[in-house]
Amino acid sequence: MRVLVVEDEPRVLSFLDRGLSEAAFAVDSACRGDEALELALVHPYDAIVLDLMLPGKTGLEVVREFRDAGRSTPILILTARDQLEDRVRGLDSGADDYLVKPFAFAELLARLRCLLRRGTAIASAIQIADLHIDLLTRRVSRAGNRIDLTPKEYALLEFLARHRGQVVTRTMIAEHVWDMNFDSFTNVIDVYIRYLRRKVDQDYENKLIHTRRGVGYVLSEDP
After folding, report:
1. Hey, which CATH number is domain 125-219, 3.40.50.300, 3.40.630.30, 1.10.10.10, 3.40.640.10?
2. Are 179 and 123 in contact (CB under 8 A)?
3. In this predicted structure, what is the pLDDT of residue 123?
């Protein structure tokens, strides 16, 4: 899942970038409100984590203009402003959630996952044939056997699983699993698909990861 983090404090931004990356998110970042709005309107983010006190445009201005443009991406406000009127103003402007600094990173992750589950049929886990993916703990197993994945391998598998039975193109994968620095002319996606096949399919007769030549990939229990 791809997230935009907007924060003008370098240490906080670095902390969020590192923590979310370790949690298998692809992270883009911005430290100005105007830059954040431009990125949010161009890239298909799955969620946005947004500070309120920003140069260029305030967080509230970003939220209002983003919503006025008809965009529905979930927005989590992360700010030191802890007064009731600040919370009300933030939520009324179009934000989906509001978390006050200082915060526990585990709570931030939980709130993000909650936002990402809204409006979908996916609860806390995905089951495809004998493949089980726990979205909360990021534990993956097949036929009861644990599969150890790197954060990027997990992110790719989760994206395929959220679109089970659907062919996803390399462009779709690049937009949601990698950040804006990804070089689309490399074969990195194909390499990671091979990594996943080795761990998920190699030891099992029923293959789940399929290639649609010239189009993309599909995760399905049907050949």
Report:
1. 1.10.10.10
2. no
3. 59
11: pLDDT strictly greater than 70: yes
Pairing mode, strands 216-219 and 145-147 = unpaired
**Can you give the residue ranges of every domain in the chain?**
2-117, 125-219
Long-range contacts of 163-171 (CB under 8 A, 24+ apart): 163/219, 164/126, 164/128, 164/219, 164/220, 165/218, 165/219, 165/220, 165/222, 166/218, 167/212, 167/215, 167/216, 167/217, 167/218, 168/216, 168/217, 168/218, 169/215, 169/216, 170/216
Q: What is the DSSP string of 69-88?
A: TT----EEEEES--SHHHHH
15 pLDDT above the threshold of 80: yes
Residue with structure tokens 């290639």?
A: 211
Domain 2-117: top CATH class: alpha beta
What Å distances lie between residue 178 and 14, 33, 46, 89, 95, CA to CA? Answer: 18, 22, 12, 33, 25
From residue 144, how far is each of 78, 129, 134, 139, 193 by CA, in Å?
Answer: 38, 12, 13, 11, 22
Sign of the CA dihedral 83, 88, 89, 94?
A: positive
pLDDT digits (tens, 9 = 90+) for 90-101: 899 899 999 999
Check if the beta carbon of residue 147 is closer than 8 Å to that of residue 199: yes
pLDDT single digits (tens) 46-81: 999 999 999 999 999 999 999 999 998 999 999 888
Q: How far, in Å, CA of 84 to CA of 88, rounded?
A: 6
